[in-house]
Amino acid sequence: MMKMAELVETTGIPRTTIHYYLREGLLPEPEKAGKTVAYYGREHVERLLEIQKMQEVDLLPLGEIKKRLAPAREGGSRSSRAASGRAAITRKRILDAAIKEFSEKGYRKTRVTDIISSLGIATMTFYRYFPNKRQLFLEVVDTIVANMVEHVEAEISGERDYVIRMLKRGMAFYRVYSQNQDILQVLRGEAVGEDREMGELVKRIYRRFTSVLVKDFDDWKKEGMFPELDTEITAYALLGASEFAIYRMSMDDRYTIKDFLTQGLDLLMAIQMVPRVDPAPLHRKYEDILEELVNDGSARN
Question: How many domains does the chain fold into?
Answer without folding.
Answer: 2
